[in-house]
Amino acid sequence: MENMTKQNDADVAFIQALAELLNSNDLTEVEVKREYGENDRLNVRVSKAQEIVHTAPAAYAAPVAAAPVAAPAQAAPADAAPADPRQDPNCVPSPMVGTAYLSAEPGAAAFVKIGDSVEEGQTVLIIEAMKTMNHIPSPKSGTIKRILVDDGTPVEFGAPLMIIE
Questions:
Q1: Total number of domains constituting the chain
Q2: HEC profile for the chain?
């Protein structure tokens, strides 16, 4: 039993390493098949879906007539963007599951706010995953048009975080 636990821990570490490899090399999918013995194997596929269906929490899957999740002061006019932020080409999706934080620490100023100009690579928020603070960079230079998450909000992989035009 102890050997099985060590193997399972090693498998978890291996899968985490694959996920890091995926993110650090801008890959969309990695698949590995390992055989340990006749009836003992591990098949893993880690992928980044471009369009997430039915995986976002209900708070993010707002119906067409509903307002976005962001606070009213942060919402853009309804006719300025598609009803589903995930369909907006300027949407910044969450690269991982975790908790989104808009500032470096409680009480500190937010990394960005509506109307701010950002440069490609500039930190726009943090996602905490497994006690690790992951700085999320802006994928492009532009202006923050909408912030779609509240500070401390849990997010799923692919959930819309903000709109940068």
A1: 2
A2: CHHHHHHHHHHHHHHHHHHHHHHHCCCCEEEEEEEEECCEEEEEEEECCCCCCCCCCCCCCCCCCCCCCCCHHHCCCHHHCCCCHHHCCCEEECCCCEEEECECCCCCCECCCCCCEECCCCEEEEEEECCEEEEEECCCCEEEEEECCCCCEEECCCCEEEEEC
